[in-house]
Design goal:
- The longest helix has 28 residues, at about 30-55.
- This protein has helices at about 5-25, 30-55.
- It is elongated.
- Helices cover about 90% and strands about 0% of the residues.
- The chain is mainly α and about 55 residues long.
- α1 (about 5-25) packs antiparallel against α2 (about 30-55).
- The relative contact order is 0.21.
């Protein structure tokens, strides 16, 4: 996994956590859902890159 891809995946996860937290505090269900979606997107990116790395070996 390249460093750039790791950083992007971590950024998606972090941004998602912030959105989810802000959404919960402000009682904004849409923002909570967006935050969870961003976190899932980051997790998928991590998984895809891990699979790519496994096939490189």
């Amino acid at each position: 996994m390249s460093a750039g891809d790791k950083i992007k995946a971590a950024a998606d996860k972090a941004a998602g956590q912030v959105k989810e937290t802000v959404g919960k505090v402000t009682d904004d269900d849409k923002l909570v859902a967006e935050g969870k979606a961003d976190q899932a997107k980051g997790a998928v990116k991590d998984t895809v890159e891990d699979v790519k790395d496994a096939f490189k070996k």
